[in-house]
Design brief:
This protein is mainly α. 46% of the residues lie in helices and 9% in strands. Helix 2 packs across helix 6.
Length: 235
């Protein structure tokens, strides 16, 4: 028997916070302008309207989109997992799974602009489907390869980086677009609870912790607003 708890002497590593550097409004517009000629232009528009995670937006199916109600459901996530098939050519495969947490399963509203963009994208996708004929692998994905197959997250990131370069922007993680959406909403004085639900954070504290530095700027403006409303400091 061990006489004492050996874990008592363990010092847990501190949780490192990754510095968040979102795109500015001007950089977002430059990026979207560079992406206009890309066949996945609608994906980037949708990302800036929703802040979806990479796996969530690549795992979106047409059955998850309600055009009449103007909303989409986040109930799938595209994952790259080990391939257990020994005869397979690749060590990895792409599979659709459900989100890891209940809070990640959510419904997100779509405005009329985004509904029309998705319908335009769907029409173009149907044209590609006719061109490929029997060789088209119809998986019902909103965003897919030309032949209908899943988009590899790694291939997608390479294409994303090329678009950033085309726009004259520094390398950014795709996740930084998600941070950009949150930062823009915070700067517009959106309720943090709304941002939490949009991004699918499990708790409001997660949202507040991640974007505390952005909210500091908003807090400063809030104090100025209070001062102006009370007409303090005016002669």
């Amino acid at each position: 028997m061990i006489g004492e708890n050996v874990t008592d002497g363990v010092v847990l590593p501190k949780k490192r916070k990754v510095e968040i550097i979102p795109l500015t409004r001007e950089e977002v517009l430059r990026f979207l302008d560079a992406a206009k000629s890309d066949r996945l232009y609608t994906l980037y528009l949708l990302e800036m309207m929703t802040g979806l995670r990479r796996g969530e937006i690549l795992g979106l199916k047409w059955e998850d989109v309600d055009f009449k109600a103007g909303r989409l459901k986040v109930i799938h996530n595209l994952y790259r997992v080990n391939n257990t098939d020994k005869d397979a050519e690749s060590k990895y495969k792409l599979v659709l799974l459900t989100p890891k947490t209940e809070s990640s399963k959510r419904t997100i509203p779509l405005n009329q602009f985004m509904v029309e963009e998705l319908l335009r994208h769907k029409k173009e996708q149907e044209r590609e489907k006719r061109l490929y004929g029997e060789d088209y692998r119809d998986l019902g994905m909103v965003f897919c390869k030309l032949d209908g197959d899943y988009i590899s997250p790694r291939e997608f990131l390479r294409q994303y980086q090329r678009l950033l370069q085309k726009a004259g922007l520094e390398r950014k993680r795709f996740h930084d677009l998600r941070h950009t959406v949150a930062s823009l909403l915070i700067n517009a004085n959106e309720n943090p609870k709304v941002i939490q639900q949009l991004l699918g954070h499990s708790t409001i504290s997660t949202t507040l912790d991640i974007y505390a530095h952005v909210m500091d700027q908003t807090l400063n403006r809030s104090v100025d607003n209070l001062c102006n409303q009370l007409e303090l400091g005016k002669e």
